[in-house]
C-alpha cells in the first residue's frame, strides 16, 4: 500500500515538475504571441509614389512596449510588432522604447483600482526575470533599459541608443551613410516605476530614461489616471516629481493621465509635453482619449500628440483609420504637433506591424495630405522635439 502511495506521489511530482518546466520554457513565447498579434490581412496596396516618398522620410515612433517581452530584438519574429529587421523594413529611424512595470488585473479604459492584482508580476516570473524585479517596479524598468543597452552592444551596426544631444547628432550623421541604423530612446510608462521615491527619478535617468509618463491604468502616488478611480490632479508628490524631471531634462508624457493631471502639468511648467500614444476624442470618442480642447492646450505650449494604431485610439486599426485620425489632428492642432505613437507590443492588436508603415504614407497621400505635412507627422516633428527637449 505504502509503495503505491509513494509511486503515486512520485508520479504527481514528475507531472507537476513537467508542467512548471514546460510553462517556463514555452509559456513566455505563448503569452507574447497571443497578446501581441496583428490582424490578419493581405499585403497592402501601395502606390509607387508612396513607396518613393516613404523611402525618403525620416520616421519616428514615440511608443512601443517591446522590452516587456523576452525577445532578442536583433532577430525577426513572426509575432509581436517590433524588432530591428522589421523597423528597418518600415524605414523607421527613431524608436522610443517604453517600459511597462505594472498593469491591473481586469485592465480596462474606464475604472481600475490601484489595489487590483498586478498582471506584470506573473509575467516577470514566467519570463524568469531577476528576482529583484519581482517586487520592485523600478527594477523592472531598469531591467528593460539594460536589454536595450545590451542590444546596442551586440548589434551596434544596426542599433544605437540615444541619450543626449550629441548622441542625436552622432546618430543623424551615421544614418547618412547607414540607412539601416535605428536610433532608440528609453521611456517609462507610469511613474509608479519610481517605487514612491523621488530620488529614483535621477536613478532612472542614469539608467538612460529620457521620457517619463506619469500614470498608466490606475491612480498612483503622483495623481489620477484617465482610467483610475479618483480623476484627481497632481498630488504634492506629483508636483515635486515633475520639478525633478524638468531639472534633469526628462521629457514628460501625459498619456493615460487624468485630464486634471494634464491641466496641472500644463500650469506647472511651460516645457512642451508629449502624449506618446493616443487618439483624438473628436475623431474617435473613446475613454482612452482626452478632450480635443486639452490637446489644443498641449499643442499651444509646443507639445506633440502621437497617434496610436489600435482600435481604442482611432476606432479601428487599419492604416486608413490611422491616416484619418492624423488628418483630424492636423486640422485640430496643426501638422507640426502631430506624430506617431504606435503602442506596438503593448498588448494591443494593430492592423499592421512596424515593417508596414508605408501603408500609412500611402493613405495620407491618397487623402491629399501635403507632402510637407506627411514628413512632419511621420518623424520630423519627433526629431525636432528631441532637438529642443532631449537632455544635453
Ligand atoms: Zn499605454
Blueprint (SSEs and pairs):
Blueprint: H1 2-35, H2 48-55, E1 59-64, H3 84-89, E2 92-100, H4 119-126, H5 132-135, H6 137-154, E3 159-161, H7 165-177, E4 182-189, H8 199-206, E5 209-213, H9 236-248, E6 251-253, H10 259-268, E7 274-278, H11 292-300, E8 304-307, H12 311-314, H13 319-333, E9 338-340, H14 358-366, H15 371-389
Parallel strand pairs: 1-2, 2-4, 3-4, 4-5, 5-6, 7-8, 8-9
Helix pairs in contact: 2-14, 13-14
Summarize this structure as a short list of keywords or feature phrases.
binds zinc ion, 12% strand, TIM Barrel, 2 domains, 15 helices, six-stranded parallel beta sheet, three-stranded parallel beta sheet, 392 residues, globular, 45% helix, alpha/beta
Question: What this model shows, in words?
Answer:
The structure is a single chain. This protein has helices at residues 2-35, 48-55, 84-89, 119-126, 132-135, 137-154, 165-177, 199-206, 236-248, 259-268, 292-300, 311-314, 319-333, 358-366, 371-389, and strands spanning 59-64, 92-100, 159-161, 182-189, 209-213, 251-253, 274-278, 304-307, 338-340. It is globular, with a radius of gyration of 21 Å. The model has no long low-confidence stretch (mean pLDDT 95). The strands form 2 sheets. Strands 1, 2, 3, 4, 5 and 6 form a 6-stranded parallel beta sheet that branches. A 3-stranded parallel beta sheet has the order 7-8-9. The longest helix has 34 residues, at 2-35. It has 15 helices and 9 strands. With 392 residues, it is α/β, with parallel strands linked by helices. Strand 4, helix 8 (199-206) and strand 5 (209-213) form a beta-alpha-beta unit. Helix 2 crosses helix 14 (358-366). The chain has 2 domains: 1-35; 46-389, Alpha-Beta Barrel (TIM Barrel), CATH 3.20.20.140. The protein starts with a helix and ends with a helix. Zinc ion is lined by residues 189, 255-256, 277, 343, 346.
